[in-house]
UniProtKB/TrEMBL annotation:
The keyword Cell inner membrane does not apply. It is found in: Cytoplasm. The keyword Transferase applies. Keywords: Cytoplasm, Kinase, Phosphotransferase system, Sugar transport, Transferase, Transport. It comes from Cedecea neteri. Pfam families: PTSIIB_sorb. This is Fructose-specific phosphotransferase enzyme IIB component.
Amino acid sequence: MAKIVLCRIDSRLIHGQVVTKWVGQSQANRIAVVSDELDADPFMKNIYLMAAPPSIKVDCYSNQSFAASWKENQLGEGSVLVLFPSLAAIQDAGGARF
Protein backbone atom coordinates (compact mmCIF):
# COMPACT_ATOMS: atom_id res chain seq x y z
CA MET A 1 0.00 0.00 0.00
CA ALA A 2 1.34 3.41 -0.98
CA LYS A 3 1.54 6.16 1.59
CA ILE A 4 -0.22 9.33 0.42
CA VAL A 5 2.02 12.07 1.79
CA LEU A 6 0.12 14.96 0.20
CA CYS A 7 -3.12 15.33 -1.73
CA ARG A 8 -3.34 18.64 -3.57
CA ILE A 9 -5.95 20.34 -5.74
CA ASP A 10 -4.26 22.52 -8.35
CA SER A 11 -5.48 23.04 -11.90
CA ARG A 12 -1.85 23.49 -13.02
CA LEU A 13 -1.04 19.94 -11.85
CA ILE A 14 2.76 19.52 -12.16
CA HIS A 15 4.57 22.86 -12.17
CA GLY A 16 7.58 24.53 -10.55
CA GLN A 17 6.16 24.93 -7.05
CA VAL A 18 5.04 21.30 -6.92
CA VAL A 19 8.40 20.05 -8.18
CA THR A 20 10.65 22.32 -6.11
CA LYS A 21 8.73 22.63 -2.85
CA TRP A 22 5.96 20.08 -2.35
CA VAL A 23 7.87 17.02 -3.54
CA GLY A 24 10.80 17.88 -1.27
CA GLN A 25 8.71 18.89 1.74
CA SER A 26 6.57 15.77 1.55
CA GLN A 27 9.48 13.47 0.64
CA ALA A 28 7.36 11.92 -2.10
CA ASN A 29 9.08 9.56 -4.52
CA ARG A 30 6.03 9.35 -6.80
CA ILE A 31 3.44 11.73 -8.20
CA ALA A 32 -0.03 10.53 -9.17
CA VAL A 33 -1.78 12.97 -11.51
CA VAL A 34 -5.53 12.34 -11.67
CA SER A 35 -7.20 14.06 -14.63
CA ASP A 36 -9.57 12.75 -17.29
CA GLU A 37 -8.51 15.51 -19.68
CA LEU A 38 -4.78 14.90 -19.29
CA ASP A 39 -5.13 11.13 -19.45
CA ALA A 40 -6.99 11.46 -22.76
CA ASP A 41 -4.33 13.71 -24.35
CA PRO A 42 -1.07 11.80 -24.97
CA PHE A 43 0.83 14.90 -26.11
CA MET A 44 0.00 16.98 -23.02
CA LYS A 45 0.47 13.97 -20.76
CA ASN A 46 4.02 13.60 -22.08
CA ILE A 47 4.73 17.30 -21.43
CA TYR A 48 3.59 16.99 -17.82
CA LEU A 49 5.58 13.80 -17.31
CA MET A 50 8.72 15.60 -18.51
CA ALA A 51 8.14 18.41 -15.99
CA ALA A 52 8.99 16.14 -13.07
CA PRO A 53 12.57 15.41 -12.01
CA PRO A 54 14.01 12.10 -13.30
CA SER A 55 14.13 10.71 -9.75
CA ILE A 56 10.35 11.04 -9.34
CA LYS A 57 8.06 8.44 -10.91
CA VAL A 58 4.91 10.00 -12.36
CA ASP A 59 1.70 8.10 -13.08
CA CYS A 60 -1.25 9.66 -14.88
CA TYR A 61 -4.73 8.32 -14.20
CA SER A 62 -8.23 9.07 -15.39
CA ASN A 63 -10.58 9.71 -12.49
CA GLN A 64 -12.04 6.22 -12.74
CA SER A 65 -8.71 4.42 -13.24
CA PHE A 66 -7.37 6.13 -10.12
CA ALA A 67 -10.35 4.87 -8.13
CA ALA A 68 -9.85 1.35 -9.53
CA SER A 69 -6.12 1.37 -8.77
CA TRP A 70 -6.77 2.56 -5.24
CA LYS A 71 -9.38 -0.14 -4.70
CA GLU A 72 -7.12 -2.84 -6.17
CA ASN A 73 -3.80 -2.14 -4.43
CA GLN A 74 -3.85 1.34 -2.87
CA LEU A 75 -1.55 2.63 -5.68
CA GLY A 76 1.16 0.07 -5.01
CA GLU A 77 4.29 1.14 -3.12
CA GLY A 78 6.09 4.36 -2.27
CA SER A 79 5.33 7.81 -0.92
CA VAL A 80 2.85 9.47 -3.26
CA LEU A 81 1.88 13.08 -3.87
CA VAL A 82 -1.59 12.99 -5.46
CA LEU A 83 -2.62 15.89 -7.71
CA PHE A 84 -6.19 16.61 -8.78
CA PRO A 85 -7.19 19.53 -11.03
CA SER A 86 -10.48 20.19 -9.19
CA LEU A 87 -12.86 19.10 -6.46
CA ALA A 88 -15.08 17.64 -9.19
CA ALA A 89 -12.25 15.28 -10.19
CA ILE A 90 -11.93 14.06 -6.60
CA GLN A 91 -15.67 13.46 -6.44
CA ASP A 92 -15.62 11.61 -9.76
CA ALA A 93 -12.74 9.45 -8.52
CA GLY A 94 -14.87 8.22 -5.66
CA GLY A 95 -14.66 11.07 -3.19
CA ALA A 96 -12.07 11.51 -0.50
CA ARG A 97 -12.35 7.97 0.84
CA PHE A 98 -8.86 6.94 -0.22
